[in-house]
Design brief:
By secondary structure, this protein is an alpha/beta fold. The protein is built from six helices and nine strands, in the order ααββαβαβαββαβββ. A seven-stranded mixed β-sheet has the order 5-4-3-6-7-8-9. It has a two-stranded antiparallel sheet with strand order 1-2. The N and C termini lie far apart (44 Å).
Length: 210
């Protein structure tokens, strides 16, 4: 089975059959070649329902998790999105299929450089090296914020950089008891709910897990 056929099967069996309902998200997941974002030795596993190592002690999230987080953001085509924990760049590419502009922050310069190379195919994505917990206040507000690393609480700078009516999704909690939290901003109020039990690498930097 070729990579395109494996990607189609991934979308049908791992995503649609497991509750991902947003057709735009499903189309984005089918459009982005996940195998281009994983190291060559792992490419035979690229469309399996699992995270995969990408170097630097980090992983590329399983396809279902990428789709679920993207779906929770409820993005329209004019949206501006901040991603924290860019890693391989895969989730940023998926978000770029859904939004007008994506800025992704990665603290590991080597991973950021590798992601930048692959993401040249998505000109609406910008890769920044830095402390993701601080966000990018000079480019805020963001219609969607996706954080692919866990901390005890949502960093206040990221809450502040969320646009009115915007959505934020992030894993929160200790390593063995993380919850994928969804936050929606309504003026000065934040409405929070829990989407799933998850396990992510820890957020580093000033607002990290330590």
């Amino acid at each position: 089975m070729g990579q395109s056929a494996r990607r189609f099967a991934m979308v049908q069996r791992q995503l649609r059959d497991r509750g991902i309902a947003d057709e735009r998200v499903l189309a984005a997941m089918e459009a982005v070649p996940r195998h281009d974002f994983v190291p060559r030795p792992e490419r035979r596993l690229a469309y399996d329902d699992r995270p995969l190592p990408i170097g630097g002690g980090q992983t590329i999230s399983q396809p279902w998790m990428v789709a679920r987080m993207a779906e929770a953001l409820e993005l329209d085509r004019d949206a501006v999105v901040l991603e924290v924990g860019g890693g391989s760049g895969y989730a940023a590419a998926v978000l770029a299929e859904l939004a007008a502009r994506v800025v992704t922050i990665e603290q590991d310069a080597t991973l950021a450089a590798r992601a930048s190379s692959v993401l040249e195919a998505w000109p609406n994505v910008t890769v920044v090296v830095g402390d993701g917990g601080r966000g990018l206040p000079d480019q805020a507000p963001f219609d969607g914020i996706s954080i692919a690393a866990a901390a005890a609480t949502i960093p206040p700078p990221l809450r502040d950089q969320l646009a009115d009516g915007g959505h934020l999704v992030m894993p929160v909690g200790p390593p063995r008891h993380q919850r994928l939290v969804h936050l929606r901003r309504d003026g000065d109020e934040f409405v929070e709910d829990v989407l799933a039990a998850v396990r992510f690498v820890p957020l580093t930097g000033e607002h990290g897990a330590d």
